[in-house]
Amino acid sequence: MTIPTRFAALMLGAAFCLSLTLNARAQPAEFPVIQTQTLEIASGQTLDLLLAQAGIGAAERQEIAFAFGAEYDLRKLRPGHELRIDMTPGGTVQQAELRVSEGVRIEISFGVDTATRVIAPEPEVLQRAASLQINTSVFVALEEAGVPSRFAVKLAEVLGGTVDFRRDLSGGETLQMMWRETRIDGESIGHFELTFAALKIDDTLFEVTWPDAASGSATLYRNGEVMRVVAQPVEGARVSSVYGRRRHPVYGDIRMHSGVDFAAARGTPVYATAPGRIRFIGRRGGYGRTVEISHGSSTMTRYAHLNAIPEGVREGQQVAAGDRIGSVGSSGTATGPNLHYEVRVNGRPTDPLSEDQNIAISRTTQSGEIAQERLVRARADLQQLMTDQSPTQRTPSES
Ligand SMILES: [Zn+2]
Questions:
Q1: In CATH, what is the architecture of 238-362?
Q2: How far away, in angstroms, is 262 Cα from ligand 1 center?
Q3: Which residues have CB atoms below 5 A from the ion given as ligand 1?
Q4: In what residue span(s) does the M23ase beta-sheet core domain sit (predicted)?
Q5: Tens digits of per-residue pLDDT, 150-205?
Q6: 264 C-alpha vs ligand 1 centroid, how far in Å?
Q7: pLDDT at 100
Q8: What is the pLDDT of residues 93-111, one digit of tens each?
Q9: For 385, which of 52, 74, 105, 129 could close a Cys bridge (C-beta 3.0–4.6 Å)?
Q10: How much distance in Å is there from the Cα of 306 to the middle of ligand 1?
Q11: Which DSSP state fits 395?
């Protein structure tokens, strides 16, 4: 637009200077000068308010909102999103554009026909790695290195029953991590996926590989050998009640709690923790809507208080660790949405979070060969990334 702008400036003289202060985008002289306004959505503001602020009448505001609404859920508008309006001096809107999260733009052109289009930039996925020293805690070490600190939770999910982060870490341990980061237009959108971690404590090297898909199971290695495969029934959920004797939240008396409760929002996916065959789907008294999976002849896992079972999940079906078998709900006797997860061996409930149990139900999860290949590849990728990254990149600053 540089040449037409200069041209217009010469032709329009003083009039152009005035429109320039209004943030005008000049057109060649034979076209009317288009005024562009860029407005940012403030807290508590609606699109309608913003359009009114731009000086647009009620009928046209409605038309614009309708066109945007066809392409974008306007309830998702947040402070910081922007509205750009191109208007003729006569006050006719020629083009309107919403700039929402993750670089997405929704553009409407008003003419003989109204045309709407959504422009979404292609996300770019980067492999990243960091090597850091643990001095106070894993969480602090990650935070100081600019690595997403939520990775501490992912690590604890896998190493929890094996490493006591308070007792076993004496300071000075090295933690290496590799993850994927999604960027749009060169900017991180806050989407990080941990793929590999290596933690050396004294002479023991613990390594964890996470699968490509979000739902698969993580594998824990000890000194290069598969130690166990860990699939969580609910990703990243908080354990709201552990196994053992407790005061019953509904009945108030002391009862044995035969499983572990994971508090999560209704509808959160529930995954099979180990491969097996679905032996029961249906209602079971206080358990509510329940799925049960047999893992060999002696071990069974039970998933209770479910909200719904995905279509296609049936009794008799074989499932893999990490397969989706339901969603969190509060059916049966439950104070709120949570997953009651139970592991029974020969009919007797056992503590699902105990290490023996993890080993028992995951023994057959994965052929050792695939797991070994995955470890070799992860180590090589990490090595490569650490070599490629210059020292300034080694501690990422913008994530
Ligand atoms: Zn429970």
A1: Distorted Sandwich (2.70)
A2: 8
A3: 261, 340
A4: 255-352
A5: 888 788 777 866 788 778 888 899 999 999 999 988 888 888 989 999 999 999 99
A6: 13
A7: 92
A8: 999 999 998 889 999 998 8
A9: 129
A10: 12
A11: S
Question: Residue 274, Cα to own-chain centre: how many angstroms?
Answer: 23
H or E segment at 85?
Answer: strand 82-87
How is the chain split into domains, by residue range?
32-119, 124-231+368-394, 238-362
Q: For the structural domain made of 124-231+368-394, what CATH number should be given?
A: 3.10.450.350
pLDDT mean over 326-335: 93
CA pair distance 103, 2, nearest whole angstrom: 25
* d(CA 242, ligand 1 centre) in Å: 8
Q: How far is the CA of 138 from the centre of ligand 1 (A)?
A: 30
Nearest to 318 by CA among 296, 340, 341: 296
User: What are the DSSP calls for 170-190, one per residue?
Assistant: -S-EEEEEEEEEEEETTEEEE
Beta strands 260-263; 218-222: pairing state: unpaired
Q: State both tokens at 246.
A: 């407790």
Do 32-119 and 124-231+368-394 agree at the fold level? yes
Ligand 1 mean position, distance from CA 299 (Å) = 18
Length of the chain: 399
Contact 236, 320 (CB under 8 A): no
Unique residue bearing structure tokens 């090597």: 131
Q: What is the pLDDT of residue 156?
A: 79
Q: Which two tokens stand for residue 184?
A: 């749009």
In terms of Cα–Cα distance, which of 267, 232, 256, 283 is closest to 350? 256
Q: How far is the CA of 286 from the centre of ligand 1 (A)?
A: 10
Segment 328-336 shows an average pLDDT of 92
Query: What's the confidence (pLDDT) of residue 31?
Result: 59
Q: What is the pTM of this model?
A: 0.55
